[in-house]
Write a structure and sequence with these properties.
The complex is a heterodimer of chains A (641) and B (261).
Chain A (H helix, E strand, L loop, with lengths): L4 H25 L9 H20 L3 H26 L5 H26 L13 H19 L9 H24 L5 H12 L21 H4 L14 H8 L6 H5 L1 H4 L6 H13 L1 E2 L17 E2 L12 H5 L6 H5 L6 H15 L7 H11 L22 H4 L4 E4 L7 H16 L4 E3 L9 H5 L3 H15 L6 E4 L2 H10 L12 E4 H10 L13 E3 L13 H9 L23 H4 L7 H11 L4 E4 L2 H8 L7 E4 H7 L7
Parallel strand pairs in A: 3-4, 3-5, 5-6, 7-8, 8-9
Antiparallel strand pairs in A: 1-2
Helix pairs in contact in A: 1-6, 2-7, 3-4, 3-5, 4-5, 5-6, 7-9, 18-27, 22-23
Chain B lengths: L3 E2 L5 E5 L1 E3 L6 E3 L1 H14 L3 E7 L6 H5 L5 E6 L6 H12 L3 E5 L11 H9 L3 E12 L2 E7 L5 E7 L2 E5 L11 H6 L1 E5 L7 H4 L21 H9 L15 H14 L4
Parallel strand pairs in B: 1-8, 2-5, 2-7, 5-6, 6-12, 7-11, 8-11
Antiparallel strand pairs in B: 3-4, 8-9, 9-10
Classes of the chains: A mainly alpha (641), B alpha/beta (261).
The structure holds iron/sulfur cluster (2 copies).
The site of one iron/sulfur cluster (SF4) has 15 residues of chain A, from helix 11, helix 14 and helix 15.
């Protein structure tokens, strides 16, 4: 071929530029704080994580998973072979044929990408992403033609120098996108950053089907108990692998489509938030962002840099306070990005450094600190709800099979109905159960989600101290938020109080009782029933089955909502959202009730006092809202002595 | 509203250790917090936040968490009287305005500190202010808080002592970070034992019977008026142009009648 040195030069140039870009990009991530990860083990595990963990999520969209497998797989294979065939000039027909096959695979994949991009859903970003399918097609087709002579299909030198020049231009375009763009911030960046993010993820436990949902504690002991900065104020305050994670975002908008705050018209869009973090880590503005904005906020005015305070110009604090920490975004993200960690990190700065928790935030935190409950009730009255329940106190008995963790529902009359129902069931099953009474303190959930990790840690440590004085095998609680703290977050404070203790949600425990035949229940005769999965029970703890099995044991056939199980929509009550109360166009609870209504249910079963409060806050007429404990207690056939 | 300050001001906000009414736990006292808030709004950097007591007390950090870089603490033991130490310190510092709460949430809670200090310093005292509107040529315009949201504007010459009412703007949120980082500077202080207090013994308060207000209202409008209007004391007497001695006698008689003394 005439000018046959041209393609290899282009490849070499693109490759070197890609390497330079990669070094630059890595240095941007390294501006973050150190975090210990096993680099070698991470890299070794990366292919497996890509094939399993990442693809398990992508697989939820069959079209996209096949498309991506073809395009991505074809591309990776092609690059390896292109280097061999066209850069190092290995003259081997088998290799050339293999390269042709890889390129065709990639080409077919790219056609499907192209098709999806013809009428893209609103959640995916446009802008440079719209040219990606064309670049993919250009890259694969140009290399196919270039490879034909090597494979012996066309004679060498076909087309003369005119074709070579045309081909080279197309190749240059394709290479620019695929190699140069990969490390210089183009759409293909997701492949480079994504692969490394899988290797160096901050929550390695998530891979292989694991679950890791507890927030990481703030180190309050740093610098002699006077840490220089609490939480994240600037992008460089994030851990380096969090920055890397932001960079992995493909702007697919699956998070946006799931976010209840976005749907409610509150100024939050998890995708835009992650993109703003990318703007922050690289420096610049959001002018090039081509996806949906934060509802009610125009794009183009956000500015940031690694050393600039995020909440002064890059992200409005209201955006951070709109989040209910429901984890729907994290659950849905194919790149396994951790939105909630980032949001809470930035909230920590606003609360612990700026003292600017909005609306009722400051008051609630003051109450939690002064009275160990968010409403400022007298701590001595915590066990008043149980005055007629004849429940032993741990203080007196020291030892019980089950410790019932009551939570702050103790102070709330509606929640007390759930507590009493649960106690009734426990008594009917003759379980040896005791409570802490007024020794129990708020779990710290709200304080932590509002960013006050100091208050959370103080509560956690004092609760653990109390727990360590007594003997029990199991803790059961009716509050999924307390459940999450006890099960997933209290472990960070060096106490052995919960060693060997099983922490359970009441639905799990009651289900065991029912399956063991310890409860004598009458079948449910009411109308249609649906079940709302509380975020902190489902996505945070993976318990989707026990509540359903319980309902089925009453003969109920659950009319499932479209968004249920791991895709359940939040009730709007988590993360302190009702306290910070950022206005939107709709209320999240109303939207959830619409979900309920589409099933035609007359009763919505829940497993959380907070969900109960939120859903019951929806104006009537609406279906009845009951905790599963209440439903069971109503069906209990009591023994007559 | 931004206060209209036309001169440099040295302000001292006095703070005590508060006590939560439900849990009894130490905290930032409500009114003292407002005194600091007002001081911060007025004085910016020329604000001294002063406490007389134990510099190790953690509750002080909740004031510092409002964004103070430092606090001064006159190092006293529990049995010492705060007033002589404060008076001595203020005598030397000679600030323009001293802000206090109306009464402390713990200890004697007599509400006497602003008065005793003003007496010792020979300054005027303004009780229960809601705001300081302006300071110009050595004269401050303050808003007094009266019951039921009413206000009275008052001019007072610097320097003065003012107690801050619950009607003043609420103290800003206290943040943990600035709180732990603030410098707490212990100062040597004049120590005088509080002889009166040492003879006291503390006991839990018993709820007092409340006098019921019988409202004979028939319509909603009347009920609303009864709930919001200023009570019209029928038995009240206005004494004008009568010698002070007779006025005092009249008050004394009333106190006797109401079994207050
Ligand atoms: S954060 Fe994840 S889910 Fe959201 S747009 Fe980016 S890759 Fe998609
Ligand atoms: S956690 Fe829930 S509310 Fe928060 S950003 Fe993610 S989806 Fe939205």
């Amino acid at each position: 071929m005439v000018l046959d040195w041209l393609p290899s030069v282009l490849i070499a140039v693109a490759l070197s530029l890609a390497v330079i870009g990669a070094v630059r990009r890595v240095s941007l991530w390294r501006a973050g704080q150190p975090d210990k990860v096993d680099l070698i083990a991470g890299l070794m595990a990366m292919p497996k994580r890509y094939l399993h963990d990442l693809h398990d999520v992508v697989e939820r969209d069959k079209y996209m998973s096949k498309t991506h497998a073809a395009t991505g797989g074809g591309f990776v294979l092609s690059v390896v072979l292109i280097l061999a065939v066209h850069l190092f000039g290995v003259d081997n027909q088998i290799l050339a044929w293999a390269l042709l096959a890889a390129l065709v695979l990639m080409f077919v994949g790219a056609l499907f990408v192209f098709k999806r991009r013809m009428d893209p859903p609103s959640r995916i970003s446009k802008g440079p992403w719209m040219r990606l399918p064309k670049s993919l097609l250009a890259f694969s087709s140009a290399f196919i033609i270039l490879t034909l002579p090597v494979a012996g299909i066309l004679p060498e030198g076909t087309g003369g120098w005119v074709l070579t020049i045309i081909l080279s231009v197309v190749i240059a375009m394709g290479l620019a996108e695929m190699m140069f763009g990969m490390t210089w911030g183009g759409p293909m960046k997701h492949a480079f950053a994504g692969a490394l993010h899988l290797a160096f993820h901050r929550r390695q436990e998530r891979f292989g089907g694991g679950r890791s949902t507890g927030l990481k504690p703030v180190d309050l002991t740093a610098n002699d108990g006077k840490p220089e900065i609490l939480g994240v104020s600037k992008p460089k305050d994030f851990k380096w692998n969090q920055l890397l994670g932001f960079d992995a975002c493909v702007q697919c908008g699956r998070c946006e489509a799931m976010c209840p705050a976005f749907a409610a018209g509150q100024p939050l869009n998890p995708k835009k938030l992650i993109q703003d973090m990318v703007v922050g880590l690289a420096g610049g503005t959001d002018a090039k962002y081509a996806g949906s904005p934060y509802p009610g906020k125009e794009v183009g005015y956000a500015k940031g840099g690694p050393d600039q305070i995020i909440t002064q110009g890059l992200v409005d604090p209201e955006t951070l306070w709109s989040c209910t920490t429901c984890r729907a975004c994290v659950e849905e993200c194919p790149m396994m990005i951790e939105h909630v960690d980032a949001i809470v990190d930035m909230r920590r700065f606003l609360t612990m450094e700026k003292g600017s928790t909005p609306n009722k935030g400051a008051e609630v935190l003051d109450n939690i600190i002064a009275t160990d409950n968010p409403n400022g009730y007298a701590p001595a009255n915590r066990a008043n709800w149980a005055a007629d329940q004849n429940l032993p106190l741990m203080r007196d008995v020291k030892k019980a099979d089950v410790l019932f963790w009551v939570s702050d529902g103790a102070f709330d009359m509606r929640s007390q109905r759930i507590l009493r129902s649960f106690v009734k069931l426990m008594k009917a099953a003759h379980v040896d159960v005791a409570i802490l009474g007024d020794e129990e303190l708020d779990s710290g959930d709200v304080a932590r989600r509002l960013g006050d990790d100091a208050a959370f840690q103080s509560l956690a440590k004092r609760n653990l101290e109390i727990l360590s004085q007594y003997e029990f095998k199991t803790i059961v609680t009716t509050d999924p938020h307390a459940y999450h703290c006890l099960r997933n977050e209290y472990g960070d404070f060096g106490s052995d109080a919960l060693d060997g203790v099983e922490v359970l949600h009441h639905t799990t425990y009651l289900n065991r009782l029912v399956q063991a035949g310890s409860l004598n229940l009458e079948p449910f005769k009411g109308g249609t029933v649906t079940y709302h999965d509380p975020c902190y029970l489902g996505r945070y703890n993976g318990e989707y089955e026990a509540p359903r099995e319980l309902l089925r044991s009453l003969g109920i056939e659950i009319a499932e909502m479209e968004r249920s199980g791991f895709r359940s929509r939040c009730c709007g009550g988590g993360g302190g959202a009702p306290i910070t109360d950022i206005p939107g166009e709709r209320r999240i609870a109303d939207m959830r009730m619409e979900d309920v209504n589409t099933t035609g249910a007359e009763l919505v079963a829940v497993g959380c006092q907070q969900c109960t409060a939120m859903l019951e806050g929806v104006v009537e007429p609406r279906p009845e809202v009951k905790d599963i404990a209440e439903i069971l207690a109503d069906q209990l056939i009591e023994e007559v002595h | 509203m931004q206060p209209n300050i036309k001169q440099s001001l040295d302000i001292v906000s006095l703070v005590s250790i508060g006590q939560h009414p439900q849990s009894g736990r130490v905290r930032r006292a409500e009114q003292d917090g407002r005194a600091v808030e007002l001081g911060m709004n007025l004085g910016g950097d020329n604000l001294t936040v002063l406490h007389a007591g134990d510099p190790q007390e953690q509750a002080l950090r909740t004031y510092a968490g409002m964004g103070l870089s430092s606090m001064q603490v006159l190092n006293l033991d529990t049995q010492d009287d705060a007033v002589p130490a404060l008076a001595d310190y203020l005598q030397q510092l000679r600030p323009d305005i001293v802000l206090t709460g109306v009464r402390a949430e713990s200890g004697e809670s007599s509400g006497m500190v602003p008065y005793l200090l003003a007496e010792k310093l020979n300054w005027p005292v303004v009780a229960r202010i809601a705001d300081i509107v302006s300071v110009e040529d050595g004269v401050a315009e303050v808003m007094l808080a009266l019951p039921r949201g009413q206000r009275r504007a008052l001019k007072v010459a610097l320097p003065f002592v003012a107690s801050v009412d619950n009607a003043a703007p609420e103290a800003r949120q206290s943040a943990y970070g600035p709180g732990i980082r603030a410098q707490i500077e212990p100062l040597a202080a004049v120590k005088e034992e509080d002889a009166v207090r040492s003879n006291w013994s503390e006991a839990k308060a018993k709820p007092r019977p409340k006098r019921l207000k019988v409202v004979k209202a028939k319509t909603a409008a009347e009920r609303f008026k009864a709930a919001t209007a200023k009570p019209q004391g029928e038995a009240g007497k206005v004494l004008k142009g009568v010698p002070a001695k007779e006025q005092a006698q009249e008050i004394f008689n009333l106190l006797l009648e109401e079994k207050v003394i």
